[in-house]
Structure to design on (611 residues):
């Protein structure tokens, strides 16, 4: 999941390209590179590590002559070959005619590479991507597009690419199969990138490429063909994100900014979607008539990472509120398990980015087997959203920090609204619907109350920031919340943290408890609290320090421990939302105390577009 950018137009090319890959850095940040077509030749600058290193190097080397009109750039998440300068993109062919940046994995690269080496091609890197410029060189007979298309016809695997050619100054070619590509249409300029983050500063008018598309891009027009070199047409869309949303806005980290944005992002997710009079939800994007809703006899949720934890809470909502049998599947497992689905099965993908490869493949599998499909996504126009053609956008705005926060709470709010709609189409009375719809309206305020306690949470975080291991335990709706709390801590502080169902401790994990292993017990005053308190006693008996989440006013909890994360009183349905926000802040302040690179944790990326 690399980030790629290409530009052709009259602006300062290096500025556009470096700003672009800086905005895409959450996709990968172990090395970066740029290629500029200057005076008929490519000037290539690469560096290992963050984009900032490349910016410095370009500064030392000079941004090049004002005549430069075209360039491409890349920020990498290594799949083939270690993060070295040689393996950084862009890659060129032996005669330096073509420069290529690639996001994806070429599965048959070693066969292609061996064939090209036999023909005299010299390879400078260990990457799979380097075969692309060499293949283009092989097929090139003065027709740029045909050479690229013939090269791509040889490739098995996934790609999002941008190609520049010294024989065709001012022109770029972009193509996609499995990895996202979007083209920003400006006034006599075009910017092509892996996603809209790199484009929002220049234009709101974009073209999303579909799998198999190849785009010939000039400063004032784009021509699209399919992989058989036949022209195809693609519409333009408008981005509704403004530039301020992709800046830190005075916060030290995007993660803290996004945690603080949750009252607003949930308000956006709920706006215009609650019909309080009838006690139901209006989710027009689902595009399902009452008879379609009633026909659903099973729901399968497919997702990865934080979205999977949101899905687990969704399962409780769909089963308890709407009485629909629901399974939550780790997407990569679902796609290879030859699952059983029926025509009245709703397969629901949950994905912030809408690009996670395993989730996309899982939904394609369910579709192939005749299931109804839908998605809950944040990124408008993303591949999963276009694949399912129905669903709910969470409208959380751009989520830049690799660890997902505001997308999670908005996904859970949308799942609760979906459950309300399904419940009203079955067994919920109007009154019951009205009560739940009023509760949903309260979520932003409840979350703000937790954010207002940041100082208290920071104090507890500092106290335990030296621990090497952490346990998180919860029951019912708070069990997935415990899993999410552990994931947040793992992702950004590099502390080994495990989330467990509180009852599961006795069946093994309790063996790991001792005075050096803090346990975060989610003991809000909802169903399961008493049992969780017994589990807390078991942990204390093993001298493990205990941090609890407790409902405001539940003073008795102070007897159990000094470290209480106070949560506003809620029903069990809403309990995971403010609770997870407290755990997001706990993880954030622990990672901050440990001096961790919170927005770009090692080895991670914001969306995993390869298997
Ligand atoms: C990981 C991200 O790569 O993918 C996580 O680091 C995220 O934050 C997971 O939860 C799933 O991503 P998505 O976009 O499908 O929700």
């Amino acid at each position: 999941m690399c980030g790629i950018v290409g530009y052709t137009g009259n602006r300062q090319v290096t500025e556009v390209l470096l700003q672009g890959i800086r905005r895409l850095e959450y996709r990968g940040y172990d090395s970066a590179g740029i290629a500029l077509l200057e005076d008929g030749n490519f000037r290539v600058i690469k560096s290992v590590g963050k984009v900032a290193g490349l910016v410095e190097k370009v500064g030392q080397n000079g941004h090049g002559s004002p005549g430069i009109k075209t360039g491409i750039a890349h920020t990498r998440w290594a799949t083939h070959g270690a993060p070295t300068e040689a393996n950084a993109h862009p890659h060129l062919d032996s005669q330096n005619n073509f420069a290529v940046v690639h996001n994806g994995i070429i599965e048959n690269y070693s066969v292609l590479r061996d064939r090209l080496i036999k023909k005299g091609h010299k390879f400078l890197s260990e990457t799979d991507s380097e075969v692309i410029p060499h293949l283009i060189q092989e097929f090139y007979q003065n027709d740029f597009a045909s050479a690229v298309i013939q090269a791509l016809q040889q490739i098995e695997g996934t790609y999002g690419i941008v190609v520049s050619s010294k024989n065709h100054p001012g022109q770029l070619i972009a193509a996609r199969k499995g990895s996202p590509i979007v083209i920003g249409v400006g006034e006599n300029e075009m910017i092509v990138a892996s996603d809209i983050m790199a484009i929002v500063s220049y234009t709101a008018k974009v073209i999303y490429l579909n799998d198999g598309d190849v785009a010939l891009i000039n400063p004032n027009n784009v021509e699209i063909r399919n992989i058989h070199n036949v022209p195809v047409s693609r519409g333009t869309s408008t981005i509704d994100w403004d530039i301020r949303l992709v800046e830190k806005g005075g916060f030290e980290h995007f993660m803290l900014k996004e945690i603080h944005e949750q009252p607003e992002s949930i308000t956006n997710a709920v706006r215009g979607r609650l019909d309080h009079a009838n006690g139901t939800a209006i989710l027009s994007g689902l595009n399902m008539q009452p008879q379609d809703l009633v026909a659903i006899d099973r729901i399968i949720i497919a997702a990865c990472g934080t979205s999977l934890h949101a899905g687990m809470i969704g399962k409780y909502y769909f089963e308890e509120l709407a009485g629909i049998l629901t399974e939550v599947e780790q997407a990569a497992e679902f796609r290879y398990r030859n699952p059983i689905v029926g025509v009245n099965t709703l397969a629901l993908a949950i994905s912030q980015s809408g690009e996670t490869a395993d989730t996309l493949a899982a939904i394609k599998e369910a579709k192939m087997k005749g299931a109804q499909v839908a998605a809950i996504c944040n990124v408008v126009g993303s591949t999963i959203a276009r694949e399912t053609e129905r669903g709910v956008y969470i409208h959380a705005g751009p989520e830049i920090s690799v660890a997902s926060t505001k997308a999670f709470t908005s996904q859970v709010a949308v799942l609760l609204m979906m459950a309300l709609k399904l419940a009203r189409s079955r067994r919920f009375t109007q009154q019951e619907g009205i009560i739940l719809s009023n509760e949903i309206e309260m979520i932003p305020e409840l979350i703000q109350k937790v954010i207002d306690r940041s100082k208290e949470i920071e104090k507890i975080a500092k106290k335990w920031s030296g621990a090497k291991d952490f346990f998180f335990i919860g029951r019912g709706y708070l069990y997935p919340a415990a899993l999410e709390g552990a994931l947040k801590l793992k992702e950004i502080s590099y502390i080994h943290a495990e989330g467990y169902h509180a009852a599961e401790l006795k069946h093994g994990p309790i063996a790991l408890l001792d005075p050096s292993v803090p346990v975060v017990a989610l003991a809000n005053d909802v169903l399961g609290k008493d049992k969780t308190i017994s589990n807390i006693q078991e942990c204390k008996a093993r001298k493990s320090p205990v941090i609890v989440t407790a409902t405001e006013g539940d003073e008795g909890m102070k007897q159990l421990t000094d470290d209480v994360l106070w949560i506003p009183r809620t029903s069990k349905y809403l309990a995971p939302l403010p609770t997870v926000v407290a755990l997001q802040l706990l993880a954030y302040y622990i990672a901050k105390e440990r001096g961790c690179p919170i927005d770009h944790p090692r080895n991670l990326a914001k969306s995993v577009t390869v298997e």
